[in-house]
Design goal:
By secondary structure, this protein is an alpha/beta fold. The protein is 30% helix and 21% strand. It folds into two domains: 221 residues, 3-Layer(aba) Sandwich (Rossmann fold); 108 residues, no CATH class. β7, α8 and β8 form a beta-alpha-beta unit. α4 crosses α5, α5 crosses α7 and α7 runs parallel beside α8.
Length: 363
């Protein structure tokens, strides 16, 4: 079979038309969770865009708001307790958040699709994987059962599942973690979406399988010219595949830059800390760097810069005034009072050691 899927065979009717070159525009998105303990400000004015054929990586620690952002874009937030309280999410110029539920269902899946983090819990354990893939064609393309199952086999072959024709009737528990993730990808690309959101697609997979999954996503994107949003906490995973990177902390984007610029010279202390925490072969035997302290409680985000309790360079202005995300170079932005100095490689003076940080641990 050819490495390129024939969209006519798959019955694809996708014909997206980017608006001013953009597939997706997220502008000032705000999300909060209302609980008995209080209101957690999970997303605080997040803005980014995505072009056809582009890969945007969204990075950050657990709890930074990456997955919640994706769920808000997809319109699958559990509500209550989650509520979108502000902003716009425009797909090809049309605001998804303002759509009716019926209209949104025609976008979710055929136009914007998602690969979830835990394939085993995302797949239905009581139905064969082929039935679950074929359901996309039965529901959205009106195919009969036999034709839909044939397309499921073709998709399983495309995502490199050995013996697809024999395994199409197997159940999720009969596949390895890497194979289940491939099945999730097959379901996500079934209807030829314009935007694919991959939420931690390599979590809990060994390094070899991680590389295979990332290569598969890269190949599929090149074939279909879809925009890819890759959500991860692993900077090593995105170094070779991302075009741009958005770094999130406490529900905000704190740095937004082209991948080469960000890796060469980070413009935010949080990004700098993430990069320094990557193990390196040329530093064998040295203590692995880490970011002291813990992410803030989203019900009690500290005043000023949210990162200031954990920042080596925090000064009075950082504790008093929240920095806005501003331009610090060509196509890059940072939310740090000292971003201009960091970009030039002129680090601000250290104001405290790592063991002095709030909640920090002495190395």
């Amino acid at each position: 079979m050819s490495s390129t899927l024939n969209n006519e065979v798959l019955g694809s009717t996708s014909s997206w038309q980017p608006h001013d070159g953009l597939l997706l525009e997220v502008d000032g998105l705000e999300v909060e969770f209302r609980t008995r303990e209080g209101v957690a400000k999970a997303i605080n004015g997040v803005s980014f865009d995505l072009r056809e054929g582009e890969t945007l990586a969204i990075l950050g620690e657990s709890g930074s708001g990456k997955s919640v952002t994706a769920q808000a874009v997809m319109g699958i937030l559990d509500s209550p307790p989650g509520f979108v309280t502000g902003g716009e999410v425009r797909y090809c110029g049309e605001d998804i958040l303002a759509m009716s539920d019926e209209r949104r269902r025609t976008i979710r899946g055929p136009e914007i699709s998602m690969v979830f983090q835990d394939a085993l819990s995302s797949l239905n354990p009581v139905f064969p994987v082929g039935w679950q893939i074929a359901e996309m064609f039965r529901q959205h393309r009106g195919m009969n059962k036999s034709n839909a199952l044939a397309e499921a086999v073709r998709l399983m072959e495309r995502v490199q599942i050995p013996g697809a024709a024999q395994r199409v009737k197997a159940y999720p528990h009969q596949f390895s973690g890497g194979m289940r993730q491939r099945i999730m990808i097959a379901m996500a690309i079934a209807l030829d979406p314009a935007v694919l959101i991959a939420d931690e697609p390599t979590t809990a997979l060994d390094v070899t399988v991680q590389a295979q999954i990332m290569q598969l996503l890269e190949e599929l994107q090149a074939e279909r010219r879809m925009g890819l949003i890759l959500i991860t906490h692993d900077l090593g995973v995105v170094a070779d595949v991302a075009d741009r990177i958005a770094v999130m902390y406490a529900g905000r984007i704190v740095e937004y830059a082209d991948v080469f610029d960000l890796y060469a010279q980070p413009a935010h202390p949080y990004t700098k800390g993430l990069l320094e925490s990557i193990p390196r072969l040329d530093r064998k035997g040295e203590t692995l760097a880490s970011i002291g302290g813990l992410p803030p409680n989203l019900m009690q985000i500290p005043p000023g810069c949210p990162f200031n309790p954990r920042c080596n360079y925090a000064q009075d202005i950082c504790r008093e005034q929240r920095p806005e995300l501003y331009e610090v170079g060509h196509h890059r932005r940072s939310a740090c009072h000292f971003a201009d100095q960091l970009v030039r490689g002129q680090e601000p003076p250290l104001t405290r050691r790592r063991d002095q940080l709030e909640g920090g641990v002495r190395p």
